[in-house]
C-alpha cells in the first residue's frame, strides 16, 4: 500500500462531502471497459440485478490484478499539473464504496480522478468518436462493471461530464494548496533562521574545516609526499558551542592505517589551559594532533589552530622572511574565505565575526620586531636571521617552523616535540615564553622532557590503552595521582580475586545449598561491579599489567688502560675560517668510567668536539690520540636517514650484520623494546621513537667501548628515556653525550662541561643549578624588554598629545 500523505487528507475529504450526489451517480454508472483495456486481464463476472442492493451495502473483493502497481505513482504528482500525466485504468470499481473515514478509499479515488482528467485533456476535440461510443462505455473514475441496462449508459455520460467539471475543481484545489504551502514556507523561513542563531547546534558552524594553513612548516603533505589525512579515520561528537574557543569532543575514536589508536574517549581542551599529551611511542599522540590539523575532527568555526610537526622547507626566503610569511599566507586564505561567506552573511555570522577579529590580530603593528625577538630567543644570530633557509641545516629550519607558530600565535597551538633540536638555553627560553605569552590561548604539546612538562603544563592527557584520561596538574602531579590510582586498582583486583576464589570453592560442592548460594553471589558481584563503575568513573579501567621496557647495551669487556682518548694542546678551525678558531689549547682525557654531558649554546662547537673524538675531523693544531683497540659508536640526530623504510627492523639489521640469523635478531631487537608486529612491518609504519630503538639496537650490536651520543632523546617517550638512562648507568664503558633533556643529565652525568667561546669549562654544581642560572638570565631580558616597550608606548602617547595640541 502506498504511504499515506497526511497533507491531502482534509482536502480529499472535503471533496467527498461536497459531491455526495455525484458519488451515488458514479455507483450507478456501470459501462464496460474501453478498447484500451484489451491487453488487461478480463474483469470479474458481473453481479445480477438482484444483488445490486447488496453490492451497494457491502464492499466487494477486488479483481485479481496487481492494482498497487498502478497506484504506485510518486505521491508528489498530486500537487503537480495533471495535464501531462497518462491515464491509468483501475481494475476494481468497488473500492469507490469506502466510507468517508476510509483514507485508503479517498487516496484511490483521488488517483482515479486524476486519471480521468488526464484522459479528457489528451483528447484534442474534447469528444469521443462515435465508433468508440458504440464499442465501449465511458469508464468510471475507479474501475468498470458490466452494464445492466441502456439507460445506465446515459447516466454514465452525465457522470463523465460532472466528473470533468469536478476534475477542474480538483485541479484548482491542488493549485491552491500548492500556493498555500509556498506561502507557508516563506513565512517559516525567517523563523528557521532565527532558531539556527539561537540553538548552538548548527551544521555550518560545526563542520570540520580542512587544514589549509594548519601546519607551521608550511607543508600540507608529509615528507614522503602523501597527505596524513588519507590514512586517518575519525569519529566523534562535538559538544562545544559554535562560537566557543574550547574544543570538547565525546565518543572520539581514531584509527590510522587500519589500527585502532583511540576508542570512545573524551577530548576536552579548555581555552587558556596548557596540556601535556603523554603516551608510549606508537600509541597515537602525533596521529591525534595530525587529525586536528587536517580538519578531521569537528570543531567550532571560531577556533584557529596550527601544528608544529617538522622543519620548514629549503627556500629562497631568509629566516626572518620565512617567519613573516606565515601571517601573509593566513591573511590571504581568510580574505578568500570571507569573500565566499559574504554571499549569505546572516548564515555565516559566527565565522565572519571570527575572521574579522583574526585579521586585526594578524595585521597588528610591530610584527617584524616581534619575529626578531623570537628568532633571537631560539638562538639565531644576526647572520643566521638573514641567511636563506635553503642554506640552513634541518635543525635550524626546525627552529624556523617553531618560530612561525609562536609568531602567528593561534588560538589552539599544537607542538609535537618542540624541544627537539634545541639546546638547553633555547629550551629554557621556550619554557619562559610559553608561560608568559599564551594568555587566552590553548596549548597541547607532546614532549619527552619531564622537566619541560613540569614547567609548562597545567593539565596532563594520558593516552593509555586506547583511552584518553585527563589529569589536572603537571607531570609530577600526574605520576603521583596515577600511582595512587594503580594502588586502588591493585587493591580492588586483589579483593575481587579473593572473593572469586571463595565462591569457586562453594561452586565445587555439587548438589549442596552452598553451591546455590555461590551462584547467587556471582550474580550479586556482577551487579555490584556495574554500580561501582557508574559511581567511580576514575576506576572504570581494568588493571593492566604492562610488560616493563628494558634497554641493555652489551658489556664492552673493558681491558683498556686510561685514558682511552686524550686531547693535547688541541685546536680546531674550519677551512676558510683560520682567523676564527673554534677551539684552542684543549687538554683533557677520557676513560671508560666517564659520564660527561656537554652543554652550551648552539654554534659553540659541541657537535664538532664529538667529531674530533670520533676521528671524523682532525685538529688544526695539537693532537688527539685514541687507544688502538678502542671501539667507538656514535649516535647522531640524522641516523634515521640511513634506515631503509621499506624493510622491517629485523630484515634491515640482518642486512647490516650478516652473521645473525633472523630468529636470533628478533630476540635481540626485543631487548630494545621493539616486539611483536613492530619487528616485521615496514619501518615507515613505525613511529620516530620506535625507529630510534632500531638505531640503539644497531649501535649495541657493535659492542663499543665508548658511546658518543648527540641528542639521543629526540622522539623518545618518557618511559624509554628512563630506560636509556638506566642502560647507560649499567653500561661498563664510557659515555659522552649532548642533550637538552635536563632529567637525563640529572640521572646520568657525573661531569657537566660548558662549551663556549672556544673553551671547555667544567661546571661546579648540578644541572638544576645551571638551569636556574639560565632562568634568571631570561627573566632579566624579559624585564628589560617590558620596560623598553613601556617607554616606547609612553613616548608614542606623548607625541600624540603634542600633535593634538598643535
From TrEMBL:
SUPFAM superfamilies: P-loop containing nucleoside triphosphate hydrolases (SSF52540). Residues 72-84 have a biased composition (Acidic residues). The keyword Repeat applies. Residues 11-26, 120-133, 170-183, 523-537 have a biased composition (Basic and acidic residues). Residues 138-148, 508-519 have a biased composition (Polar residues). The keyword Repeat applies. GO terms for molecular function: ATP binding; ATP hydrolysis activity. It comes from the Eukaryota. CDD domains: ABCF_EF-3 (cd03221). Residues 1-227, 505-537 are annotated as: Disordered. Residues 247-490, 565-782 form the ABC transporter domain. Keywords: ATP-binding, Coiled coil, Nucleotide-binding, Repeat. Residues 317-344, 771-805 form a coiled coil. PANTHER family: ATP-BINDING TRANSPORT PROTEIN-RELATED, RIBOSOME BIOGENESIS ATPASE. This is ABC transporter domain-containing protein.
Amino acid at each position: 500500500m502506498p504511504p499515506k500523505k497526511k497533507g491531502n487528507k482534509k482536502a480529499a475529504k472535503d471533496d467527498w462531502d461536497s459531491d455526495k450526489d455525484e458519488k451515488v451517480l458514479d455507483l450507478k454508472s456501470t459501462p464496460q471497459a474501453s478498447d484500451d483495456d484489451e491487453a488487461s486481464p478480463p474483469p470479474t463476472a458481473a453481479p445480477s440485478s438482484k444483488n445490486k442492493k447488496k453490492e451497494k451495502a457491502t464492499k466487494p473483493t477486488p479483481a485479481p490484478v496487481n492494482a498497487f502497481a498502478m497506484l504506485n505513482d510518486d505521491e508528489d504528482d498530486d500537487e503537480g499539473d495533471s495535464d501531462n500525466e497518462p491515464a491509468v485504468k483501475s481494475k476494481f470499481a468497488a473500492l469507490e464504496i469506502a466510507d468517508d473515514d476510509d483514507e485508503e478509499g479517498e487516496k484511490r479515488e483521488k488517483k482515479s480522478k486524476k486519471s480521468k482528467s488526464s484522459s479528457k485533456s489528451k483528447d484534442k476535440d474534447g469528444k469521443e468518436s462515435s465508433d468508440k461510443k458504440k464499442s465501449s462505455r465511458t469508464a468510471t473514475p475507479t474501475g468498470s462493471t458490466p452494464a445492466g441496462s441502456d439507460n445506465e449508459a446515459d447516466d454514465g455520460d452525465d457522470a463523465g461530464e460532472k466528473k470533468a467539471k469536478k476534475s477542474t475543481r480538483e485541479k484548482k484545489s491542488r493549485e491552491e494548496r500548492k500556493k498555500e504551502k509556498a506561502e507557508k514556507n516563506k513565512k517559516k523561513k525567517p523563523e528557521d533562521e532565527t532558531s539556527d542563531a539561537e540553538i548552538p547546534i548548527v551544521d555550518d558552524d560545526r563542520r570540520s574545516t580542512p587544514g589549509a594553513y594548519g601546519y607551521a612548516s608550511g607543508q600540507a603533505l608529509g615528507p614522503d609526499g602523501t597527505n596524513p589525512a588519507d590514512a586517518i579515520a575519525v569519529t566523534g561528537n562535538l559538544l562545544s558551542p559554535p562560537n566557543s574557543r574550547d574544543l570538547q569532543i565525546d565518543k572520539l575514536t581514531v584509527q590510522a592505517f587500519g589500527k585502532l589508536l583511540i576508542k570512545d574517549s573524551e577530548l576536552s581542551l579548555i581555552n587558556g589551559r596548557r596540556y601535556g599529551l603523554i603516551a608510549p611511542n606508537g600509541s597515537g599522540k602525533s596521529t591525534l594532533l595530525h587529525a586536528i590539523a587536517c580538519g578531521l575532527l569537528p570543531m567550532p568555526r571560531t577556533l584557529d589552530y596550527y601544528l608544529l610537526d617538522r622543519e620548514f622547507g629549503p627556500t629562497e626566503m631568509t629566516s626572518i622572511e620565512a617567519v613573516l610569511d606565515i601571517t601573509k599566507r593566513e591573511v590571504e586564505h581568510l580574505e578568500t574565505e570571507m569573500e565566499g561567506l559574504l554571499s549569505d552573511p546572516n548564515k555565516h555570522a559566527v565565522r565572519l565575526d571570527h575572521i574579522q577579529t583574526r585579521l586585526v590580530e594578524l595585521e597588528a603593528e610591530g610584527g617584524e620586531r616581534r619575529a626578531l625577538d623570537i628568532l633571537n630567543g631560539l638562538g639565531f644570530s644576526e647572520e643566521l636571521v638573514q641567511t636563506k633557509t635553503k642554506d640552513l641545516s634541518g635543525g635550524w629550519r626546525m627552529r624556523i617552523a617553531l618560530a612561525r607558530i609562536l609568531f602567528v600565535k593561534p588560538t589552539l597551538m599544537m607542538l609535537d616535540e618542540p624541544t627537539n633540536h634545541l639546546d638547553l638555553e633555547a629550551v629554557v627560553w621556550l619554557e619562559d615564553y610559553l608561560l608568559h605569552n599564551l594568555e587566552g590561548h590553548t596549548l597541547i604539546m607532546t614532549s619527552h622532557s619531564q622537566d619541560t612538562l613540569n614547567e609548562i603544563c597545567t593539565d596532563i592527557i594520558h593516552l593509555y590503552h586506547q583511552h584518553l584520561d585527563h589529569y589536572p596538574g603537571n607531570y609530577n602531579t600526574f605520576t603521583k595521582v596515577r600511582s595512587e590510582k594503580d594502588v586502588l586498582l591493585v587493591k580492588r583486583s586483589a579483593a575481587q580475586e579473593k572473593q572469586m576464589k571463595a565462591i569457586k570453592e562453594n561452586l565445587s560442592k555439587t548438589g549442596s545449598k552452598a553451591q546455590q548460594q555461590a551462584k547467587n553471589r556471582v550474580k550479586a558481584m556482577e551487579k555490584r561491579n556495574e554500580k561501582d563503575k557508574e559511581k567511580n568513573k576514575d576506576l572504570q579501567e581494568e588493571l593492566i599489567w604492562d610488560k616493563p621496557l628494558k634497554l641493555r647495551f652489551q658489556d664492552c669487556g673493558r681491558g683498556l688502560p686510561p685514558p682511552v682518548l686524550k686531547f693535547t694542546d688541541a685546536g680546531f678551525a674550519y677551512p676558510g675560517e683560520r682567523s676564527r678558531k673554534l677551539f684552542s689549547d684543549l687538554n683533557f682525557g677520557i676513560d671508560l668510567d666517564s659520564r660527561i654531558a656537554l652543554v652550551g649554546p648552539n654554534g659553540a662547537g659541541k657537535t664538532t668536539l664529538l667529531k674530533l673524538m670520533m676521528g671524523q675531523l682532525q685538529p688544526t693544531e695539537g693532537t688527539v690520540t685514541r687507544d688502538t683497540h678502542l671501539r667507538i659508536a656514535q649516535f647522531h640526530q640524522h641516523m634515521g636517514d640511513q634506515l631503509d623504510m621499506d624493510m622491517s627492523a629485523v630484515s634491515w639489521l640482518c642486512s647490516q650484520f650478516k652473521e645473525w640469523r633472523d630468529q636470533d635478531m628478533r630476540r635481540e631487537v626485543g631487548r630494545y623494546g621493539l616486539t611483536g608486529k613492530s619487528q616485521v612491518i615496514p619501518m615507515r609504519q613505525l613511529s620516530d621513537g620506535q625507529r630510534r630503538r632500531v638505531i640503539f639496537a644497531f649501535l649495541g650490536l657493535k659492542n663499543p667501548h665508548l658511546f658518543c651520543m648527540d641528542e639521543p632523546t629526540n622522539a623518545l617517550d618518557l618511559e624509554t628515556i628512563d630506560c636509556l638512562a638506566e642502560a647507560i648507568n649499567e653500561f661498563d664503558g664510557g659515555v659522552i653525550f649532548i642533550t637538552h633533556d635536563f632529567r637525563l643529565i640529572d640521572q646520568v652525568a657525573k661531569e657537566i662541561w660548558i662549551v663556549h667561546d672556544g673553551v671547555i669549562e667544567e661546571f661546579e654544581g648540578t644541572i638544576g643549578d645551571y638551569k636556574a642560572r639560565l632562568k634568571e638570565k631570561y627573566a632579566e631580558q624579559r624585564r628589560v624588554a617590558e620596560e623598553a616597550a613601556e617607554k616606547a608606548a609612553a613616548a608614542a602617547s606623548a607625541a600624540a598629545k603634542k600633535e593634538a595640541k598643535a
